Amino acid sequence: MKKTLFDKVWDAHVVKEVQNGPQVLYIDQHLIHEVTSPQAFNELEQRGIPVFRPNQIVATADHNTPTIDQHLPVKDLLSRNQLAQLTENCSKNDITLYGLGHKYNGIVHVMAPELGITQPGMTMVCGDSHTSTHGAFGSIAFGIGTSQVAQVFASQCLLLQKPKSLRVNVNGKLKPGVLPKDVILYVIAKLGTNAGTGYFCEYAGNVFEEMSMEGRMTVCNMSIEMGARGGMIAPDETTFEYVKEREFAPKGEAYAKKVAYWKTLPTDEDAIFDKEYHFDATDIAPMITYGTNPGMGIKITENIPTENNASFEKSLAYMNFEKGQSLIDQKINYVFIGSCTNSRIEDFRVAANYIKGKRKADRVTAWLVPGSQQVASQIIDEGLNKIFEKAGFKLRQPGCSACLAMNDDKIPEGEYCVSTSNRNFEGRQGQGSRTILASPLVAAATAIEGKIVDITKNLN
Amino acid sequence: MDKFIKLSSAAIPLPIENVDTDQIIPARFLKATDREGFGENLFRDWRFNKEGNVNEDFSLNNPNYSGRILVAGDNFGCGSSREHAAWAIHDYGFKVVVSSFFADIFKGNSLNNGLLPVQVSPEYLQELFTEIKKDSTTQIEVDLEAQKITIKSTGSETNFEINNYKKMCMINGYDDIDFLLSSKKEIEAFESARV
Predict the structure, then answer these.
(1) Model pTM?
(2) CA distance B182 to chain A (A)
(3) Which residues fall within 8 angstroms of residue A142, CB to CB, at 6 or more apart?
(4) What are phi and psi of A306, to 5 degrees?
(5) Cα first-last separation, chain A
(6) ipTM confidence
(7) DSSP assignment of A422-441, as one string?
(8) Interchain contact A146–B (C-beta under 8 A)
(9) Of B28, B74, B81, Cβ closest to residue A406
């Protein structure tokens, strides 16, 4: 039988099948962070169960960490306690932790790939819905709840029903100024926030084949925003090159052996998907969102649709936008470039390239939050920090930051923030804040102009 | 985990679509390291305004509504994987959430916490909203063994789907860890066969 990339990886990890029930799926790599792991550790302790495979777990502190003065004790008592618990739990259970200040610390979905922890053909989980990011390498990676974190601690396995398969094909040539973020925002705007629920999504077509690993991660990251538990892209030379020589990647002969296996993973020709969509790359333009879910996106030059539906109207009322309105020239006071969606070096290069020689609008507060310590160092090595400083942007320390505003990086009530993150839910970036999702290029341009502009006019 | 077999109760309506887990429990309340007490902050920013005053318009604050069943709009529980969302709903006192569609991770998290997600057709969901609006004390019966939900006053009933294994777990109060631990030998055999 013809198999999809997803089938191949999934089937290679099935330990057994419960009759008329779920399958026991083996998990190669478990990533944990401070927010969704403490209750799982408690559960194991209460039941007297040891952590089964501590060497297949890597921990980082990211969700609840400050992005300034990381060398000082964390001010917020609850956050400090949560971080202390992570440290204690990891040391008690022999789990590697890259805590605050460590050179490998960073957002879990940024640091694991850059360390070579993420590899093609793996099964990976984390108590975070954006774990789908790692699917960019051709791995099965998905977010889990805390009860499942405890299950993986206890058995390195999960009980799961095999999801259905979905393929999103995008072919053609992308226009200038259209970034991977625009591609995924476009797909979600077309398909809606629940089109992928119950499915695992493969992204295929020359657009994804030609993307860098950073771009592929941005795309797979947002799979959950259309409901899909995970997204995948077939591993190829770009993937192998990225993984090669990274800290935890296999080396020498072991690497060559792995590559030979990874080459067998792409979906067989004529394999059948439960659902399949095709999009033309030339139709994609720089995107922004206008509502309170990531499916409420439009091309930057389009007007807000006119729908008669209570939930739609509630959403527009929250955003203080009108049906049919254009967002061009909309005044913006906050810009955030960061999050597990867009905080990799490529994102900062794009922003720096646009910003160079310009200065941000006076009223704009512009936060740049690198995804990891390694990205932060790279920004300095490449001299991008000088460009940002000259332009009046604030470069902060790594972490999830204003994407979910668990720490002090909050957007004030009623303010709009053009953000490179992944969710524009009500209050996501702080109580009463209004999020407009966009690419790093649109975010950079917004910071310079102090308003939303049609960036395609400034390019060429 | 709590057992769930059958429940008859009034319901609280939440006719909003795409209710995400950030609304169910905002991120700023995720700093706790135990599972208890999240009900206090369930739908925090819809139940209370920024000054902490009760928002009278929100259905959970409406004294006419009560009960252990939450009836919500389409695509309930989308967004983050935070299990705190299921804990908050359960801790507030709900045993069942009814919707025409649930997000994946939320559904799994609920089932792992003795909170039953009941998926019905959009038409039946509308019927529920209409009957609850007509009479806020409308009794709704959820029978897990028969996989059936019934509006008692009208007798209108419909079946719902649930995975057999998960149904057995809910009825008996079992959780997945017990099952996985009982599979340890096979897991170890799987590991050694791969190397």
Answers:
(1) 0.96
(2) 10
(3) A124, A125, A131, A132, A200, A229, A230
(4) -115, 95
(5) 47
(6) 0.95
(7) S---TTTTSTT-EEEE--HH
(8) yes
(9) B28
